[in-house]
């Protein structure tokens, strides 16, 4: 999962956490309007903040992942 794509393009705060049962990536987009669509093994993230908008694709792990968005916080949990 490309954490750098999220941080560089939006100025968001993002982190990767590794646990015994899988990795978790969390990105906080603040007050921006964020949406995410999952197509097979890719998460497409669209961020709209006023007149600014960007879209990025995040490759998901081959074993599968759960992708959630809640109050501007994107969470991707790798399934092991």
Automatic annotation (TrEMBL):
Entries under InterPro entries matching the protein: DUF7127
UniProt name for this protein: Hsp20/alpha crystallin family protein
Domain of life: Archaea
Organism: Haladaptatus litoreus
